[in-house]
Amino acid sequence: METSAFILKLACPDRPGIVAAVSHFLLHAGCTIVEAQQFEDPTEKRFFMRVVFAGAGGEVEPARLRAAFEPVAAQFAMQWSLTRQGEHKKVLILVSKFDHCLVDLIYRARIGELPIDITAVVSNHGAENYRHIDFGGLPFHHLPVTKETKPAQERRILELVEETGADLVVLARYMQVLSAELSAGLARRCINIHHSFLPGFKGAKPYHQAHERGVKLIGATAHYVTDDLDEGPIIEQDVERISHYDSPENLVRKGRDIERRVLARAVRYHVTDRVLLNGHRTVVFPD
Amino acid sequence: METSAFILKLACPDRPGIVAAVSHFLLHAGCTIVEAQQFEDPTEKRFFMRVVFAGAGGEVEPARLRAAFEPVAAQFAMQWSLTRQGEHKKVLILVSKFDHCLVDLIYRARIGELPIDITAVVSNHGAENYRHIDFGGLPFHHLPVTKETKPAQERRILELVEETGADLVVLARYMQVLSAELSAGLARRCINIHHSFLPGFKGAKPYHQAHERGVKLIGATAHYVTDDLDEGPIIEQDVERISHYDSPENLVRKGRDIERRVLARAVRYHVTDRVLLNGHRTVVFPD
Amino acid sequence: METSAFILKLACPDRPGIVAAVSHFLLHAGCTIVEAQQFEDPTEKRFFMRVVFAGAGGEVEPARLRAAFEPVAAQFAMQWSLTRQGEHKKVLILVSKFDHCLVDLIYRARIGELPIDITAVVSNHGAENYRHIDFGGLPFHHLPVTKETKPAQERRILELVEETGADLVVLARYMQVLSAELSAGLARRCINIHHSFLPGFKGAKPYHQAHERGVKLIGATAHYVTDDLDEGPIIEQDVERISHYDSPENLVRKGRDIERRVLARAVRYHVTDRVLLNGHRTVVFPD
Amino acid sequence: METSAFILKLACPDRPGIVAAVSHFLLHAGCTIVEAQQFEDPTEKRFFMRVVFAGAGGEVEPARLRAAFEPVAAQFAMQWSLTRQGEHKKVLILVSKFDHCLVDLIYRARIGELPIDITAVVSNHGAENYRHIDFGGLPFHHLPVTKETKPAQERRILELVEETGADLVVLARYMQVLSAELSAGLARRCINIHHSFLPGFKGAKPYHQAHERGVKLIGATAHYVTDDLDEGPIIEQDVERISHYDSPENLVRKGRDIERRVLARAVRYHVTDRVLLNGHRTVVFPD
Fold it and tell me: Binning pLDDT at 50, 70 and 90, where does residue B189 land?
C-alpha cells in the first residue's frame, strides 16, 4: 500500500554510526527501507540522508514514530523531517505577466504528476491577464505593487502563506524583487526561476544581452530565494544550444521552454523531499 | 590517508535488516562510512549497495575484514566484493583498425584519470597500424584472425587474460564478433562500445544507414559482452545532435567523439566498482 | 513591415544556375532577401532552398509574383511554394486519452508562439476527458472508433480536414493506427510523435520495455506519417538521461516532457516552411 | 575531384543584389555551387556568406578567380577570402602544464580529421613535461616566462608565428595571460579555451569555485582572443551535468572532456572557414 510509506530526511555533522543508528531504529520499529540515498560531504564534514520506508507489518503511526526517533535525532544533532510519501504539499504561486510556468505547474498538478495542491495564485497583474487559464476554483489574488504599497503587499503575501498553510512559495516568473524581510520570512521554502547564461549577465533584458554577446547556449536556474538576489542555493539548471540565427525573440521563446521544465523539476525535487541544504549549496537526491 | 579506504559492493535479495547489518558490521569493525549508495529494485526484489569506508583508527586489514564479513554475507545470500579504493585494475584492450578509443584510454590511464594498468594491447591488425602511439612499454600482440584460425586466436586471447591477470577486457572498437565460448569466458568482465541510433540499425556501415534514414541524433552504447551480440547489459549511453548537413563521413567523425567518451565513462564506472548487474540490466552508482 | 515578407521554398534536381536564377528573379521583382538557406544533397543530386524576402519598395502582390516565378520554376523542374511569412496555418489535432501534447499546442498557439489556428480537435475519447482544458471555442469532435466503424471514422476525419481547410494534421498522442488510405490521404501534411529508444522497441508499453532493457537514455521522434507505421521521414528528435532509479512510471513522466517539446518543435518547423522532403528523409532549416 | 573545390567566405553591408552578383559571377566563371550558407543580420544590417564551389568543366585557377572577383567585392565593400577546400591550415599550439587539449589536437590532425599542419608547439614548461607524447617530428619550443622576460618571450612567439607561416594560434590550455600587444598582433587568428559556468566566476581555481557555489552544470567556451581577457567573440560552447557527488577534482576531470571537444570543434570551424566575425560576435556556419 503506497500510502503507508514515509520519507525521513536528515542532515547532521558526519560521524561514525549514523547509518547504523537510523537503520536499526527502522528495523526495530518494524519498518522496511524501500529506497535510501545518502551523501557525506568531505569538505563540510556533514552527512545527508533520505530514506523511504514502509511498515513491514501494517500501518505506521507517524506521531509515534516521530516521538521514538527524537532521541536518535538528538544524539547526532540532526535536522530532520518525517513526511508521508505522496502526501500533497501546499503551494502558493506568485506570477507576473508571463504565465508559461504558471500554466505548466497547474497542468502538472492537475494530472497528478506533481504531488501539490495549489492553494492560491498571486499576481501583481489583474485576473484579465489570465482569462484563458482554467483556474478550476483556485483562489486568485491581484496584489498590485508600487514603491509605496510594497511593504503592505508583501505583508499580504505572508498572510496568504499563513492563511493557506502553504509549505512552499513558487516565484513562477514573478518579476518583483522580494524585500530582504520577505526573503527571510520565506527562507528555505521559496523557489525562484531565472535565466542563466555563460557568461552571466546582470540587469534588464537578459536574453537581448545574451544575443548581443553571441553566446551559443542559453539556460535557466531554479534556486531557493535568499536576500542575495538570484544567488540563492541552486536546485536545478538546464541549457539549450542556440546559434547566430536566433533573434532575441527566439531566445525568449526557447528560454520559456527551459524555464518551465527547470522550475517543474525543482518543485518536484522540493515537494518530494529530495533537496537538502548544505550551506549555500544543495544536495539533491535524484529520482 | 586515501589508500586505507575500501569499497564494499554487494547485491542480494531485498529483505529487512540489510543496511542495519552492514552498517553495524562496519561500525564494530572500527570503520567509518565515507560514501554509500544503495538501490532497492521493487520489481526484482533485489538490493544493491556500494559503500566506501575507511578505518577510523588506522589501517584496515582487508583479509581479516573479508573473513569477518563472511557470516553477514551468508545470512543475506549476498554476491559481494571488497576492494581497496584507488587500487588499479588490470585491463586488456582489444582493438582493430580504428584506434581513437585505444589512444583515449591510454591517455586517461597515463595521466592517472583512470585507475587502470593496461596489461596488453591485442589487435587483429599489425603493429605498423599504430606506429604513432607511444605504447611506452605496453606489450602489443598481433593476433590476426581468419575463419580457420579464430578458435585458436580466441584461445590465445583467453590465455593472455589469464597470463596478465586482467580484471577487465575492453573491446575498444574491436571489429571481430566474439564466439559464444569467449563471450561466456569473459562474462561480466568484458565491455564493448558500439554506435546507437533511434531507431536502431543492424548490419554493416551503420553510420551510412543512419544517414540514409535521416535521423537527427546519433549515439553510442557501452555494454557488457554476452553471447547476444550488441545486446548485453547497458552501462552507459550518450548522443549528439546532427542535421541534414552531415555526410556519412561526418557521422563517423562525430561518432568517434561519442564512442570514446561513452567507453571511457563505462570503463571508469566498472573499475571503480560502480556497476552491479541486475539480471540483464545494470545498476550504476554515479560519481 | 513584417506582413509584407514572403517565404519561397523549393526543391529540384541540382544543376548550375539555380541560385543565380532565383536571386536575379527576386532582384528584378524589386525584392530583398532577408534570410536564405540552401542545401545541395551530393548523394541524391537534389537542391533545396528556403528564401525569406520582402518588397524593397513596398507591398508585394503574391499572385503576380507566383505567376512571374512560374517560368523559373519550370526551367529547373522545381517543387515550390510561396507563402506569406507569419501567416497562420490551419491545424487539426487528433488526440487520445493523454492530453499533454494537446494542452501544450493550444497554449503555444494562444500566446502567439506557434503561428497556427487550431481548426478542430478530434478524439476517440469523449469531451469529459478534457474538461479542464479551456478550448476557448475550438470545435471538439468525439469520433469513437471500433474495428467496424474505423473506415467511417477515418472518412469523417478526412471530411473535417477538408471542411476546416486544415493545412496540417497533428497526431498529438493519437493512439489509433491510421489506415494506409488515411495515411496516403494525409501524405506530407500529418505529423506524429512517438517515443524513441536506443535500441528501439516495437509493441505495447514501450516505456516498460525500455525500463526492462535498462537503457540510459529515452527519447521521442516527430515524423511525417506514412503507411509504414512509425517510420516516416523524421523531423525532430530529442532525448533525456535516465538511470536505474527510474521506474516505468518515471519514464512515462519524463517521456511526456520530451514528447511535447519535440512535437512542438516539429510543428513549428513545418508551419514556418522549414521542412523539405528529401526522399524518405527531411531537410530542416533551423531557426 | 575534391581538390578542385574552393571556399568563398565574405561579409559586407547588407543590401539588395549580393546573392545575385555572387551567384552570377560563379555561373559565368564556369563554377557550380556545392554548398552555400548565408546570414543576414537584421540588427547590424550585415550580410555573411560561405560558398563552396567547384569548376564545372575542370580545374579552377584560384589567382585568376580572385582577380576576377575583385570588382564584385569592391562593389559591395566585402571582406572576403577564397581558399582551396581541404587545404591544410598551419597551426601553432601554445600549451602549459595540462596537455589534454594538445594531445587531442595532435591526434585529430594525425588521423586526418582536422585539416591542419601543426607547425610548432610552444610551452612555458620544458619538453620533459610531454615525454609521453609522440611529437613525430613537430618542433617543440620551450619558452619559459617571468615578469621580466615576458616581452621577449611574446616577441619570440610572434616571430615563430611568422617563421612558420602559422594561419592560426591555438591556446590549448596555455595559462599565461597574453599582453594587449600580443593579443592585438594575433587578432582574428588566435583561439582560446576556458571553463564556463552558470553563473560565471572570475579568478583562480574556477572548478573549485563552481563546486563551492553548487552549480549543476559545468561548461567550456572557445573564443577568439582579444585584449579583453576571456571575453573575445565566442565560437563554441558546451556543458555537462554534475551533482553534489562531484568533488572539485571530478569537476576538473569532467572539465577536461568538455574543454577538448569544444576546442576541437572551434578549431575545426575556423580552419574550414566556417567562422565569420560580426562585431564582437561570430557567425558559425555548421557542418
Answer: very high
Res A156: pLDDT: 97
Pairing mode of beta strands A46-55, A168-171: unpaired
Q: Where are the domains of chain B?
A: 5-84, 89-271
The 10s digit of each residue's pLDDT in D190-228 is 999 998 876 666 667 888 888 888 999 999 999 999 988
Region C89-271: CATH code = 3.40.50.170
The yes-or-no verdict on residue A256 having pLDDT over 90 is yes
* Phi/psi of residue C135, nearest 5 degrees: -70, -15
Nearest chain D residue to C34 by CA distance is D40
The helix/strand/coil state of A170 is: strand
β B275-278/D140-142 pair status: unpaired
User: What is the DSSP-derived secondary structure letter of residue A16?
Assistant: T
Angle between helices C18-28 and D18-28 (to 10 degrees): 140
pLDDT at residue C208 in the model: 85
- Which has the closest alpha carbon to D89: D58, D127, D118? D118
Name the interface residues of D facing B (CB cutoff 8 Å): 100, 103, 107, 110-111, 113, 132-134, 136, 243, 245-246, 250, 253, 256-257, 261, 286-287
User: Does the fold of domain C89-271 match that of domain C5-84?
Assistant: no
ipTM of the complex: 0.92
Task: Say whether A132 and C113 touch across the interface (CB within 8 A).
Answer: no
Nearest Cβ partner for A19 among B15, B16, B33: B33
pTM metric for this prediction: 0.94
Q: At the topology level of CATH, where does D5-84 sit?
A: Alpha-Beta Plaits (3.30.70)
Q: In this prediction, what percent of chain A has a pLDDT beyond 70?
A: 95
Residues of B in contact with A57 (CB under 8 A): none
C131 vs C114: CA distance, rounded Å: 23
Residue of A nearest to C113 (CA): A253
Q: Which residues of D are catalytic?
A: 230
Higher pLDDT, A230 or B31: B31
